[in-house]
């Protein structure tokens, strides 16, 4: 693994492209797991897909939500995309045609976050109604309602084999759930207890990356319940900003920030290696391409753009 040697010079990311299509704040950006597509969603009630080939051409626009869309996720085969909206629904769409397949109803308040399991036969969603719901993709039925938190749920994610779900909330807790039984297996709690704005499993499934509204990201070993590393320097005290693992060329943590930048930290040393400037509002969401050295970022309402950053070898 020579590429993750911290002594090697870091190749900076540069702005490659700016995508302007959404009419209001961008709320989330995500690459598909095959890397061919980028998806975005917005307070303008739409989702969009883009081709990640040379020109980043716009592919599809998805209309149907009655309110703003907060999150989206692709199925593992990239044929479906699901979305979470303030209209209290999760919707399942056909990626190629842009048509609506199913509307998943049950949440009683804004749906804030959504993800497929790796098998893509289940969807997990988190809501301002303080629950996490697990849905059957084929039937659209709700399989489980997890009484997860005592405040809005900010993130819900499966691990890499789909056996566990992690959820986070403004109540300051991260919880790990058995995906098949719905039992809470572990609650991670910090001394301070700041609101948790984001959580996701690491690619190897051993760690969870936790964002809190005290301008901090932490890497936890969830089997021991110990936190290993802390990443700071960015600004995050207000919004639920997503972060990501970059593993295509060394190991880095990537996050948006309320100072309009994208931050990159070296995972091991916790050093900020780059701060990407260009957005004109809070960077709310980031996603790392699965195979290329490429980052997508999306920003709030006075910006409304998606930016694509790439590491170019000189």
Task: Give an overview in words.
With 314 residues, the protein is an all-beta fold. The chain is built from no helices and 28 strands. It has strands at residues 13-20, 26-31, 37-42, 47-51, 58-62, 69-74, 80-85, 89-94, 100-105, 111-116, 122-127, 132-136, 142-146, 153-158, 164-169, 174-178, 184-188, 196-201, 207-212, 216-221, 226-232, 243-246, 252-255, 262-266, 272-276, 283-288, 294-299, 305-311. The strands form 7 sheets. A 4-stranded antiparallel sheet has the order 1-28-27-26, with no helix packed on it. Strands 2-3-4-5 form a 4-stranded antiparallel sheet, with no helix packed on it. Strand 2 and strand 3 form a beta hairpin. The radius of gyration is 18 Å and the shape is globular. The two termini are 22 Å apart. The mean pLDDT is 95.
In short:
By secondary structure, the chain is an all-beta fold. It has strands at 13-20, 26-31, 37-42, 47-51, 58-62, 69-74, 80-85, 89-94, 100-105, 111-116, 122-127, 132-136, 142-146, 153-158, 164-169, 174-178, 184-188, 196-201, 207-212, 216-221, 226-232, 243-246, 252-255, 262-266, 272-276, 283-288, 294-299, 305-311.
Assess the beta-strand content as a share of residues: over 45%
| Unreliable sequence segments | none
Q: Average the pLDDT over all residues and give the rounded result.
A: 95
Termini separation: 22 Å
What's the story with the biggest beta sheet?
Answer: 4 strands, antiparallel
Separate helix tally: 0
How would you write the strand order of the largest sheet?
A: 1-28-27-26
Overall geometry: globular
Helical residue percent band: under 10%
Q: How many strand units?
A: 28
Radius of gyration: 18 Å
Please identify the structural class as seen in this structure: mainly beta
Helices and strands, in N-to-C order?
Answer: EEEEEEEEEEEEEEEEEEEEEEEEEEEE
């Amino acid at each position: 693994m020579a590429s993750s040697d911290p002594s090697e010079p870091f190749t900076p990311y540069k702005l490659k492209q700016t995508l302007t299509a959404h009419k209001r704040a961008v709320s989330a950006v995500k690459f598909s797991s095959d890397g061919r597509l980028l998806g975005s969603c917005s307070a303008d009630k739409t989702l969009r897909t883009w081709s990640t080939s040379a020109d980043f051409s716009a592919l599809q626009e998805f209309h149907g939500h009655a309110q703003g869309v907060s999150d989206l996720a692709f199925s593992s085969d990239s044929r479906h995309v699901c979305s979470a909206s303030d209209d209290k629904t999760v919707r399942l769409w056909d990626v190629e045609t842009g048509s609506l397949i199913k509307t998943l109803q049950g949440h009683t308040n804004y749906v804030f976050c959504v993800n497929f399991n790796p098998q893509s036969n289940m969807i997990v969603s988190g809501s301002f109604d303080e629950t996490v719901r697990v849905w059957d993709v084929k039937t659209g039925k709700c399989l489980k309602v997890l009484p997860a938190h005592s405040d809005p749920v900010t993130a819900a994610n499966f691990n890499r084999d789909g056996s566990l779900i992690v959820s986070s909330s403004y109540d300051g807790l991260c919880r790990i759930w058995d995906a098949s039984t719905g039992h809470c297996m572990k609650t991670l709690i910090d001394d301070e207890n700041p609101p948790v704005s984001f959580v996701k499993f690491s690619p190897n499934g051993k760690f969870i990356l936790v964002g809190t509204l005290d301008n901090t990201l932490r890497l936890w070993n969830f089997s021991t319940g110990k936190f290993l590393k802390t990443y700071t320097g960015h600004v995050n005290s207000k919004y639920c900003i997503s972060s990501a693992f970059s593993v295509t060329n060394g190991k880095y943590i990537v996050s948006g920030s309320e100072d309009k930048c994208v931050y990159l930290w070296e995972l091991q040393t916790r050093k900020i290696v780059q701060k990407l400037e260009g957005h004109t509002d809070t960077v709310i969401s980031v996603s790392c391409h699965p195979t290329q050295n490429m980052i997508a970022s999306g920003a709030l309402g006075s910006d409304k753009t998606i930016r694509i950053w790439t590491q170019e070898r000189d």
